[in-house]
Write a structure and sequence with these properties.
The chain is mostly beta strands. The chain contains three helices and 22 strands.
Length: about 325
């Protein structure tokens, strides 16, 4: 079930605490960041939306809602109406309001983010989301392929966006000690968060991290069927420059292989960052969203949230990371 540097665990309420949990106390002294990220669909629309809220223990750093680019190599569409409704860079202490059940809250103006050991409720600008957990979470240690202490929890969301009923999936992540900028500095980094509910209703979720091709790590789970971790992940993809930012490379399809596992991925939508406008100044940085399936016959999902994030995806860093198919 686990290797030395990352573990699959049951959802653990200790990660709601503001203090560093026992898992990481020998490696980190502070909660650096926590993120709420959701990909959601509005009924009648084919292109999904993306919600992101970044916080620290004392502030709401940034919040945003964008519409994804309608093709893998296209950037996001800005939604200024909703952006103006969301809190940006404001003091908002993360604090406990109950011990039994354990509940924390972080609120400012029209944002009220409630974190409970059993479920969560995120009200943020035009969004009102009820959040439930996938069965397993993952922790990465400082010496893992992630290069930082991280708690990663997949979630399902249901609720409303500007009064319209929505459903989606996403993540609740918490980092300790180092921040993401430090973890990815000077080398290629890819993390693939593949979260879905299959047509048979079972939760399917996978997470993969790669710095050096062939030396990545990850896990794959299907509810009540399988839950495994694996090392030595290799990725096969044809890397191409983005038309609107030719120094940044991305791909439209990929195959991830590890011991006894092969995952096929097809990109459908794209962004460059989660800001209102694409982060063209961040060379090599970008996002891909799409569908996936385990080796064999392709299948579809009734709920999908699959996001791949790439840092330093340039020709130079891709070559250093061991990729060969680069246009």
């Amino acid at each position: 079930m686990e290797n030395k540097t990352f573990q699959l665990i049951n959802h653990d309420k200790s990660f709601l605490e503001k203090e560093v949990p026992e898992f990481f106390k020998k490696e980190a002294s502070i909660l650096t960041r926590h993120w709420n990220s959701v990909l959601f669909f509005v009924e009648g629309e084919s292109v999904p939306y993306y919600y992101m809220r970044s916080c620290t223990g004392d502030t709401m750093r940034s919040g945003n809602i964008i519409r994804l680019g309608d093709e893998p190599f296209k950037p996001q569409t800005a939604l200024p109406k909703y952006h103006k409704m969301m809190v940006q860079k404001a003091e908002a202490p993360y604090h406990k309001i109950s011990d039994e059940p354990l509940i924390y809250i972080q609120e400012k103006d029209n944002a009220c983010l409630t974190y409970s050991e059993n479920s969560m409720h995120w009200v943020d600008g035009p969004l009102d989301l009820n959040v439930t957990f996938f069965p397993k979470a993952c922790i990465f240690h400082q010496d893992s392929v992630y290069r930082m202490c991280m708690y990663h929890q997949d979630v399902i969301v249901e609720g409303f966006f500007d009064g319209k009923k929505i459903i989606g999936g996403g993540i609740y992540d918490r980092s300790y000690g180092r921040d993401m900028d430090e973890s990815t500095e000077g080398e290629f980094h890819l993390d693939a968060n593949l979260t879905a509910i299959r047509e048979d209703g079972k939760k399917e979720y996978c997470y993969i991290v790669i710095h050096q091709n062939g030396k990545g790590a990850g896990y794959y789970c299907v509810e009540d069927e399988i839950c495994i971790t694996f090392d030595d992940v290799a990725m096969t993809a044809d890397w191409e420059p983005l038309p609107y930012c030719p120094d940044t490379y991305s791909f439209k399809k990929a195959i991830f292989t590890g011991k006894d596992i092969m995952i096929h991925y097809t990109g459908k939508w794209g962004t460059k960052g989660h800001t209102q406008h694409p982060r063209v100044e961040m060379v090599g940085f970008g996002h891909m969203y799409g569908d996936f399936y385990l080796e064999g016959t392709p299948y579809t999902h009734q709920m999908l949230c699959s996001e791949i994030e790439v840092w330093n995806g340039t020709k130079e860093f891709l070559q250093k990371a061991g990729f060969t198919s680069i246009s």
